[in-house]
């Protein structure tokens, strides 16, 4: 079953998160351009990309697989912003803002996946 990703609240919030991540990493040191800055940004974009790709799959089982990959990217992002905070690249406020979004998206995706699993049974 193909899902319209643009209508999914967690996709919309993931898009907002990706934009936020780009904005908040803009001030990272130049030496991190190909390091932490790139990793954080790629993780944020990966969330969106995997939701979109999964939504185009013909089965809910395949969509769930891509959602699991997207959730893995959320956890990766969480780790990377934690490191960024610890080494002083992110303010406490920016760190908490990003983490709040990550947690919210993770919860939404978990509920959505549970509903898909229930429908598959």
- Average of pLDDT: 95
The CATH architecture:
Up-down Bundle
Low-confidence stretches: none
The CATH homologous superfamily corresponds to 23S rRNA-intervening sequence
User: From N to C, what is the helix and strand string?
Assistant: HHHH
Q: β content, as a range?
A: under 5%
Shape annotation: elongated
- Specify the helix fraction band: over 70%
* Radius of gyration (Å): 15 Å
Distance between the termini: 15 Å
Q: What's the tally of helices?
A: 4
Assign the CATH class.
Answer: Mainly Alpha
CATH topology: de novo design (two linked rop proteins)
- What structural class do the secondary elements suggest? mainly alpha
Question: Could you describe the 3D structure shown?
Answer:
With 121 residues, the chain is an all-alpha fold. It has a single domain (5-120), classed as 23S rRNA-intervening sequence (de novo design (two linked rop proteins)), CATH 1.20.1440. It is built from 4 helices and no strands. Helix 1 (9-25) runs antiparallel to helix 4 and helix 2 (36-55) runs antiparallel to helix 3. The radius of gyration is 15 Å and the shape is elongated. The two termini are 15 Å apart. The mean pLDDT is 95.
């Amino acid at each position: 079953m193909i899902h319209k990703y643009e209508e999914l609240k967690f996709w919309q919030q993931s898009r907002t998160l990706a934009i936020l991540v780009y904005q908040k990493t803009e001030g990272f040191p130049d030496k991190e351009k190909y390091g932490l800055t790139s990793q954080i940004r790629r993780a944020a974009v990966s969330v969106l990309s995997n939701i979109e790709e999964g939504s185009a799959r013909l089965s809910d089982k395949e969509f769930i697989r891509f959602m699991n990959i997207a959730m893995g990217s959320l956890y990766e992002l969480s780790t990377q912003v934690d490191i960024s905070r610890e080494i002083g690249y992110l303010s406490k406020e920016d760190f908490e803002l990003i983490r709040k979004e990550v947690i919210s998206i993770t919860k939404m995706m978990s509920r959505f996946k549970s509903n898909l699993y229930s429908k598959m049974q």
